[in-house]
Design goal:
- By secondary structure, this protein is α/β, with parallel strands linked by helices.
- Helix 4 packs parallel to helix 5 (about 110-125), helix 5 (about 110-125) packs antiparallel against helix 11 (about 285-305) and helix 7 (about 140-150) packs parallel to helix 9.
- Helices cover about 45% and strands about 25% of the residues.
- It is built from eleven helices and twelve strands.
- The chain has a six-stranded parallel beta sheet, sandwiched between helices. It has a six-stranded mixed beta sheet with strand order 8-9-10-7-11-12.
C-alpha cells in the first residue's frame, strides 16, 4: 500500500479535520511535532477557528465544502477530530478519494455508518486506524501485548469512570453535544473494549444494564471462555473517578499501568498509520475493528435502554 505522495521516504502529509478541544489539545500538536509527518492543513466549520489552529502550527486553514476537497487534494491522509456521525461520512469521502484515514473512536454511532466506513476503506485499499488511546500509548500497548501472550485468563474487570458531568466540573469536553447525548458507554466504552477483546477474544455474549446518571454496566462472555465486567460513565463524583483494568487467571492478576497522556498515544497511532501505509498490513485497530465496536455498543445501548 503506497502513500499518495508516491514514496515512503517523504513525510506523510496528514490533514486535520476539526478544530475543537481534542484537535487543539492533542491532534494538532502531535501531528505538527511528528518528525515523519507534514501537517498539510486544518479544516474547520468556522473559518476563525481553522485560521487560529492552522496559524498556531504553521500550516494552512481550510473551510467550507470546497475546503474539504482542497485539503484532501493536499494530503496523503486525514485525521479526524469531529463528532462520530460527522466523521463517518467524511471518512467515506476521504477513503474514496484515496486518502488514508486516522479516525477517532467511535467511528460512528450507527451500524450503517460504521459499516460504510469499513466498506469504503476496503474498496479503496487505503490504510485506516481507529484511535483507541490504550492501544497506542506505549505503556499500555506493551502491557496488552504481554497479557495476550500470557493467556490463561479466567475473568477481567474494567472500570472507566470520568467526572466530566460531575458538579463543579469545568472540562471543556463537557460542551460536546454527542458526549452528553450518548454518555460514557460511547465515549469511553471503546477504550475498555479495545483492551479486553485482544486479550480475552471477541465478545460472544453481552448483557447491559443502566446505572446512575449516564453509567452503563456490561457483562461480557468472550471467545476464550473468559468473562469480563465493565463499568462506564462520565458523571461520577470527582473523588470516585478513575480507570482500572485488571485480569485474573492461571498466572495470577495483572493490572493496567498508567500512561503518559493522549498526545503521546496519538503519536503512536500516527506511527501505526505510517507503518500500515508502508507495509500494506492492516492494523488490528482499523476501520473493521471500529465497525465491530459500534456493533457492540449499539447492542449494549439497546439492552440498557430496554
Amino acid at each position: 500500500m503506497d502513500s499518495a505522495a508516491g514514496t515512503t521516504a517523504a513525510p506523510l502529509r496528514i490533514g486535520l479535520l476539526g478544530t475543537g478541544p481534542w484537535a487543539r489539545n492533542t491532534q494538532a500538536p502531535a501531528l505538527a511535532a511528528h518528525p515523519g509527518v507534514e501537517l498539510s492543513g486544518v479544516w474547520g466549520r468556522r473559518a476563525e477557528a481553522a485560521d487560529a489552529l492552522a496559524t498556531a502550527h504553521g500550516t494552512r486553514a481550510y473551510t467550507g465544502e470546497e475546503g474539504i476537497d482542497a485539503l484532501l487534494e493536499a494530503s496523503d491522509a486525514v485525521a479526524f477530530a469531529l463528532p462520530p456521525d460527522v466523521q463517518a461520512p467524511l471518512a467515506v469521502r476521504a477513503a474514496r478519494a484515496g486518502r488514508h484515514i486516522l479516525m477517532d473512536k467511535p467511528v460512528a454511532t450507527t451500524v450503517d455508518g460504521a459499516r460504510a466506513v469499513a466498506d469504503a476503506v476496503a474498496e479503496a485499499g487505503v490504510a485506516s486506524i481507529v484511535f483507541c488511546t490504550l492501544r497506542f500509548a506505549p505503556e499500555t500497548a506493551a502491557w496488552i501485548a504481554e497479557q495476550t501472550a500470557v493467556g490463561g485468563w479466567f475473568t477481567a474487570r474494567a472500570q472507566w469512570l470520568g467526572s466530566l458531568y460531575a458538579e463543579g466540573s469545568t472540562s471543556e469536553y463537557a460542551d460536546s453535544p454527542w458526549r452528553r447525548e450518548k454518555g460514557g458507554l460511547w465515549d469511553v466504552g471503546p477504550h475498555a473494549l479495545s483492551v479486553l477483546i485482544p486479550v480475552l477474544g471477541d465478545v460472544e455474549h453481552l448483557t447491559a444494564a443502566p446505572g446512575p446518571a449516564d453509567t452503563t454496566h456490561l457483562i461480557l462472555r468472550h471467545s476464550s471462555g473468559a468473562s469480563s465486567t465493565v463499568a462506564l460513565g462520565l458523571s461520577a463524583p470527582r473523588g470516585a473517578a478513575g480507570v482500572e483494568i485488571e485480569f485474573r487467571g492461571e498466572h495470577g492478576t495483572a493490572s493496567a499501568p498508567g500512561w503518559d497522556g493522549a498526545e503521546t498515544a496519538f503519536r503512536g497511532a500516527v506511527d501505526a498509520l505510517a507503518e500500515t501505509v508502508r507495509t500494506g498490513v492492516p492494523h488490528a485497530c482499523d476501520a473493521r475493528f471500529g465497525r465491530h465496536l459500534t456493533e457492540l455498543l449499539v447492542a449494549a445501548e439497546t439492552q440498557a435502554r430496554a
